[in-house]
Amino acid sequence: MNNLNGVTIKRGKIGANRSDNQRTVSALVVSSVVLAGLAFNTPVTIYSTNDLEQYGLDAAFDKENNVNVYRHVSEFYRMAGEGTELHLMLVAQTETLKTLVQTEATKTLLATADYEVRQIAFALNPTTAAESTDGIPTDVTEAIPFAQGLANWASEQNMPCQIFLEGYQLDGESSVLPDLRDIENVAATKVSVVIGQDWKYASTKTGLAQKYADVGTVLGVCSSASIAQNIGDNEAFDLNDSTKDAWMVAGLSSHKKNTEVHSQLQTLENKGYIFGLSYAGLSGIRINNDHVCAPIVVDQEGNINEHTIAYGRVMDDVIRQLRAVYLPKIKKTYPLDEQGKLLAGPLVALEQIGDDVFTDMQNASEISSGKTTIDPSSDLLVKKELIVSFVVIPMGSVGEITGTINIKNNL
User: Fold this and answer.
1) Are residues 215 and 327 in the same domain?
2) Cα first-last separation, the chain
3) Which Pfam families has this protein been placed in (predicted)?
4) pLDDT by residue (tens digit) across 149-207?
5) What is the spatial distance between Cα 191 and Cα 307, in angstroms, rounded to a whole number?
6) What percentage of the chain reaches a pLDDT higher than 90?
7) pLDDT over 70, % of the chain
């Protein structure tokens, strides 16, 4: 008999979410004087500076205590936009970058954020001058490998992320500063050091508070950038905002204007530091580049290491998405051929799952292309292990334009 409804259409079930809307989720760990409304080592989730002010943390707090706590958060939201999810944790001023990237409290913050933090920054408000032998606090350089260790741990826990360290109290010439791209026995592909500051704002502070770096600004730009985008994208990210009197003058954490150390900026770029930069012929201030503390590596098989923040964010996102789409396939049963290996049909279908992720990312201009390849000899009977390889070709980026020009009497 016929159904008198004539046509019956039911809503289909929704599978794993392939539209990742969590890429902006960030975290900030910053040392501070005691704040009555927010205990140390206690992560809180906020979505605006208004949320932060409910804890009693505002611009007046920074001014009264000569610190840069609210500053980092307000700069994050100025660049990332209100409504962006930020996991904030205040810690004691006795903490150092080296201790913060190793503490259990930081790991707890990442875990309690539902594994969604994609980028995290660490900033200090020290009460004493840092020890330094090469123009930058020893604490900063010693923290880099431990920060990479934190990133490795986070990746093992299925929550990979990029890490920004505040390169505070810069006090040496660029010639003596360590080359972050060539630290002996260290290849910290997930770690970046920020030494740039809003010089005009820093001038409102005194003492050590003047020698801070605007890591909150860079974290905000990273949060708002697409995963394949260089945080120094000249067209997209201008740090300058005259209506808010923000980043009117670019400087370094030595509290020197860029114009005072102009001849040293190229060396700082070459050595992998991150700072604000003005270009002749282009108004505003941009981040110089998306450096990480690692050399550029291309092996004999053409594999490239994650030597930029963008490459690292793309790889993190690919890993998260592939894990999400393949997890439902775990413990499913599949027909095998006479040799006990996967039949061609299921093999192709399983490869297509990964390729669909790559297709979506390619359509979104996040990668150039990607390919999933399953080893047909995978043992699903005893080891029950599916061996899969993934290859990703990232988007390209113009770092500089080199050309020649001549005057001709005809074209």
Assistant:
1) no
2) 80
3) DUF2586
4) 999 999 999 999 999 999 999 998 999 999 999 999 999 999 999 999 999 999 999 99
5) 10
6) 86
7) 92
Structural domain containing residue 173: 26-287
Q: Considering its fold, how many domains does the chain have in total?
A: 2
User: What is the pTM for the complete model shown?
Assistant: 0.91
Q: Phi first, then psi: give them for residue 145, nearest 5 degrees.
A: -65, -35
Nearest alpha-carbon partner for 311 in 406, 396, 369, 399: 396
Per DSSP, what are the bridge partners of residue 198? 250
Classify residue 138 by its DSSP letter.
H
Question: So what's the pLDDT on residue 405?
Answer: 58
Any residues with CB less than 8 A from the CB of 10 and at least 6 apart, and which? none
Residue 402 lies in a domain: no
Distance CA 181, CA 192 (A): 10
Q: How many CB atoms are closer than 10 A to CB 65?
A: 16
Q: What is the mean pLDDT of residues 223-231?
A: 96
Relative orientation angle of helices 104-112 and 138-156, to the nearest 10 degrees: 40
* 410 vs 192 pLDDT, higher one: 192
Q: How does DSSP assign 221-276, residue by residue?
A: HHHHS-TTS-TT-TTT----BGGGTBSSSEEETTTEEGGGGGGGHHHHHHTT-B-E
Query: Same domain, yes or no, for 96 and 209?
Result: yes
Which residue, among 198, 241, 229, has the nearest Cα to 79 in the 3D structure? 241
